[in-house]
Specification:
By secondary structure, the chain is mainly alpha-helical. The protein has one domain. Helix content is 44%, strand content 6%.
């Protein structure tokens, strides 16, 4: 049985974000993800006018690592949960803010599943800011 995802309130995430000493570009990427809600490599590159290298999802992972360093207990729990979600038991640091999306049949939206050209992720509900609530 899969345990539930460790949840961090938006307020605590915002505090961690402020403590992470991110660059303006890194903060912009996080805010874009939180506002957009559903992302993939192409959405990030086009929406933020990023070059192809390094890949946008690698940038996101590195930024999440910086944020996670300010909340080590929560980040450790997220990384453990993340590894449990992966058939190869590999954690992805981007799971701090988002997770792979699934279609209505429960199949992940990814090239491996044959459902999309890019891995598609959805921001955690508590971190979504797109509706301005």
């Amino acid at each position: 049985m899969t345990k539930s995802r460790p949840v961090l309130t938006a307020d605590l995430f915002d505090q961690a974000l402020s403590s992470a000493s991110l660059t303006d570009d890194e903060e912009e990427l996080i805010e874009f993800v939180r506002y957009t809600g559903v992302i993939d490599e192409l959405i990030l590159r086009k929406g933020l006018s990023l070059p192809a290298k390094p890949p946008a999802l690698c940038r996101l992972s590195n930024i999440c690592d910086k944020i996670g360093a300010t909340i080590p207990d929560h980040f450790g729990a997220v990384m453990q949960w993340s590894a449990e979600q992966n058939e190869d038991n590999i954690a992805w640091k981007g799971n701090l803010i988002c997770n792979i999306a699934y279609n209505s049949d429960g199949i992940e939206l990814s090239p491996n599943a044959g459902t999309t050209l890019y891995y598609t992720y959805v921001v955690h509900q508590e971190l979504f800011i797109g509706l301005g609530f």
